[in-house]
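Sequence only, no structure available. Ideas?
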Amino acid sequence: MRLTLIITLLLAMTSSANAANTGGGSAPAPAPVATPTPTPTPTQAAPTPTPAAVKTVNSELAKVTTLLNANNFKQALSALKIIDSEFKNNADVNNLLGYSSRKLKQYKPANAYYKKALKINPNHLGALEYQGELFVLTNKVSAAKKNLVKLEKLCGLKCGEYLDLKKAIGKR
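Reply:
I predicted one. C-alpha cells follow.
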C-alpha cells in the first residue's frame, strides 16, 4: 500500500509538472513541426584576390631572379619587358633590364636602361654598380671610377656594390 501511494504521488507530480510545462491541461503538447529552411542561392560575387595572386613589382622581380640566377638572360629580358610595361618607371626593373641586356652583350640598350634607372633614382646602388661594370666593358674606366666614388659616398667602402665595382675596375 505504501508502494502504491508513492507511485500514485510520483505520477501525480509528473502529470502536474508536464501540465505546467505545456500550459496546463492533461493532454501533452504537440511536437513542434520543423519547417524546412530554403537553401540560399549562391551569388556570383567577384573573387577576392589572394595575397599570392596580387601582382607587385617585387613579386614579379622575384620570379625573374630565378631566371637570372640560372643565367637565362634572354628569357629574363623578355619577362622584364613585360614587367616594365605593367610597372612603369621603376628603377629596379630598369636596372635588371640593363643587367640582362649587358649579359647578352647588348651594351647600347643596357646603357639606356641604366640611365633610366638612375634618372628615376640617382642613388640606386645596383644601377650605379652595374653601369660602372658596363663602363669597364666598354673601356670607359674613368666613368666607372666616378660611379665608384659615388657608391663610396652612398654606402661606404664595405658595401657590396662598391666592392664589386672596385673588383671589376681592378688595376685599370
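Residues 123-172 form one domain.
Hope that gets you unstuck.
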